[in-house]
Amino acid sequence: MELNWSRWFRCESSFGPVPAPHQPGIFALAEEVAPAGVSSHRLLAVFEIGEGSDISLAISRLFASSGDWRKRLEESACYLRYAVVPIEKERQAATLALRKWLTTQFDSATQIFGPQRVPAYELKTVAERAVDRVTGVMAEEGEGSREWSRPAGF
Fold first, then answer.
1. What are the tens digits of pLDDT across the range 78-134?
2. CA gap 36, 42 in Å, rounded
3. What residue spans in the chain does CATH classification 3.40.1440.10 cover?
4. Of 58, 24, 30, residue with least CA distance to 45
5. CB neighbour list of residue 32: distance below 8 Å, 6 or more residues apart
6. What's the CA gap between 154 and 150, in Å, rounded?
7. The pTM of the whole model exceeds 0.85
């Protein structure tokens, strides 16, 4: 399915009119991570993909005072783009595909730009790691995840 996307619009305020039609479709929200330079384009990072039977209303709800993205709108330069998709099954399929794509891009970006966690086993001395291998002690790695340290030779 090919989507006819609008251009990017700047979201100026949660009180201003949403530059999207009162039609069914999908939308993408992004924030500016690098401003446009003399010879370059603005760099945007997509942070939300959504859909609804009324694009304008769905976006307005996100930026309402109790909405999920209100704070982000106030703190950074947010941009919006949308595509009118009248058929509900097509709209849901496109939204799902774009969300999967966004998740894979987020995972890739986290590996490149995200904070590097140092596994607990790297914080231990060589002697401590050797004792853990021999005794089979579990080494904690980050929040909630664990890695089993097996005895040497296994």
1. 889 999 999 999 999 999 999 998 888 876 666 555 555 545 545 566 666 666 777
2. 4
3. 9-113
4. 30
5. 42, 43, 44, 76, 77, 78, 79
6. 6
7. no
At 69, is the secondary structure helix, strand, or coil?
A: coil
Q: Cα–Cα distances in Å, from 136 out to 6, 124, 127?
A: 57, 15, 14
Distance CA 54, CA 61 (A): 11
3-state secondary structure of 146: strand
- From residue 78, how far is each of 16, 40, 87, 124, 143 by CA, in Å? 13, 19, 28, 43, 31
Q: How many CB atoms lie within 10 A of CB 11?
A: 23
Q: 44 with 77: CB under 8 angstroms?
A: no
Residue with tokens 């500016």, as numbered in its chain: 32
- Give domain 9-113's CATH number out of 3.10.450.50, 3.40.1440.10, 1.10.3210.10, 3.40.50.620: 3.40.1440.10
**Quick one: tokens of 145?**
């995840």
